[in-house]
Automatic annotation (TrEMBL):
Organism this protein belongs to: Fusarium oxysporum f. sp. cubense (strain race 4) (Panama disease fungus)
First-listed, main subcellular location of the protein, grouped into a coarse class: nucleus
Subcellular location: Nucleus
GO biological processes: positive regulation of transcription by RNA polymerase II
Protein name: Transcription factor domain-containing protein
Cleavable signal peptide: none
Cross-referenced InterPro entries: Fun_TF
Length: 338
C-alpha cells in the first residue's frame, strides 16, 4: 500500500503532467482491503506509526486527486471513519498531512464539490443558460453547508499536544499553522464557490464588494500565517496547494481603493517569491506550473475587472468569477499539487 502511494504521488516529480491516477484508483481498492484487515482504533497507539502514515498518506492523496478529477462526495465516504477517531490519534506528525489529517478529509470533500460547482456553471454557460440546474445547485449547496459546519468544528491540536518531530526545521508550531491554513483554505474555497454560505455579509446593493472583500481577507489571513513560517521549514513541501488557493484569490475591481490594489500587488509578489524559493529548494516543475496557473488566474481577473469596472453582480466579480481550477484545466496544466 505504501509503495503504491509513494509511486503514485511522486509521479509528477519526474513529469509534471503525470497525475498518477492509475495508481490512485488502484490504491483506493488496496486501501479498502487494508482497512478491513486492521483495527482502526489501534491507530491511537504510539507503536502504530506505519499504519498512521498509510492512512494519512491516503487522505493527502485524496486531497490532491480531488483537485483533478470529477467525482461525487460519496466516493470519499470511506474516510469518515478516521474523522470519528479521537483528535489525539493524528497528533503524531505525518510527512504528508502534518497534524491536519482530519481537516484534510474535509478539504478533499470541499474541493470535490467545488469542482462540481465549477462544472455546473460551465455547463450552464455553454448551453446559454437554458438548462434548469436548480435541483443540482440546491443539492451542492446543501452539501456545502453541512461541510462548512464540519470544517468550522475541526479541532487543531496545540503544539504541546504534538509529538516532537525531532527536526529543528519543522517544530510542532509549524505543523499547527499548516493545519490552520488547510482549514482556512477549505473555508475560502467553499465561500468562494457558494456565496449563499455567507448571507450575513450580503445585501442586494453590495453583494459583490462584500463577498470579494471577505474572500480577499481570508486569502490574506492564510498568507500572513504562511509568512510566519520560515522559508527553510520542511513544511514547504506541503504548502503548495495552500499558496495556490490563497494566491488565486488575490484580485480586485478596477475601481477598488488604492490601498486594496497595493495590498493585492504586494501579496502577489510574496506568493511568487515563496513559490520560487520552493522550486529552488525542491526542484519540482510542478511548482512552476502552479506559478503559471496563478499568473493566468491573475491576468484573467485583471481583465474581468477592466471589462466590468462598475459591476455589483456576483457573476461579474473578478475574485468570484475566475477560479484557478478552470485556468489550470483549460491550459492543460493539471499536476499533483504536493
Amino acid at each position: 500500500m505504501l509503495g503504491i502511494t509513494l509511486i503514485g504521488m511522486t509521479s509528477s516529480w519526474h513529469d509534471p503532467s503525470s497525475l498518477g491516477l492509475c495508481h490512485f484508483h488502484g490504491a483506493r481498492q488496496v486501501f479498502s482491503i487494508w482497512m478491513n484487515q486492521f483495527d482502526l482504533m489501534d491507530l491511537q497507539l504510539p507503536s502504530h506509526r506505519i499504519q498512521r502514515l498509510i492512512a494519512s498518506s491516503m487522505v493527502y492523496w485524496e486531497v490532491m486527486a480531488s483537485c483533478l478529477i470529477d467525482q461525487e462526495v460519496g466516493a470519499l465516504s470511506y474516510l469518515d471513519v478516521f474523522s470519528a477517531l479521537p483528535p489525539t490519534t493524528f497528533c503524531y506528525p505525518c510527512p504528508w498531512t502534518g497534524v491536519g489529517t482530519n481537516i484534510l478529509i474535509h478539504l478533499a470533500k470541499c474541493m470535490t464539490i467545488v469542482r462540481q460547482r465549477r462544472r455546473l456553471i460551465s455547463y450552464n454557460y455553454s448551453m446559454g443558460g437554458d438548462i434548469d440546474v436548480s435541483s443540482r445547485s440546491v443539492d451542492l449547496l446543501t452539501q456545502a453547508f453541512t461541510l462548512s459546519l464540519d470544517i468550522d468544528q475541526c479541532q487543531i491540536p496545540t503544539p504541546a499536544e504534538i509529538q516532537d518531530t525531532g527536526d529543528y526545521r519543522t517544530p510542532p508550531d509549524h505543523l499547527c499553522k499548516i493545519a490552520k491554513c488547510y482549514q482556512l483554505v477549505a473555508r475560502l474555497e467553499l465561500d468562494r464557490a457558494f456565496p449563499e454560505l455567507t448571507q450575513g455579509l450580503q445585501n442586494d446593493q453590495t453583494q459583490d464588494s462584500l463577498l470579494s472583500q471577505h474572500i480577499l481577507e481570508l486569502a490574506v489571513k492564510i498568507l500572513e500565517i504562511i509568512n510566519t513560517i520560515p522559508e527553510d521549514s520542511r513544511t514547504i513541501a506541503i504548502q503548495t496547494i495552500i499558496i495556490l488557493a490563497a494566491g488565486s484569490a488575490l484580485g480586485s475591481s478596477s475601481n477598488a481603493d488604492t490601498n486594496i490594489k497595493v495590498l493585492v500587488a504586494g501579496w502577489r509578489r510574496f506568493v511568487l517569491g515563496r513559490l520560487h524559493n520552493s522550486f529552488l529548494s525542491l526542484k519540482l516543475q510542478t511548482i512552476n506550473r502552479v506559478s503559471t496557473v496563478l499568473q493566468g488566474a491573475w491576468a484573467r481577473m485583471d481583465s474581468v475587472a477592466i471589462e466590468a469596472p462598475d459591476s455589483t453582480s456576483f457573476d461579474k466579480s473578478p475574485i468570484l468569477l475566475v477560479h484557478w481550477i478552470d485556468v489550470m484545466t483549460e491550459a492543460g496544466l493539471e499536476t499533483i499539487l504536493g
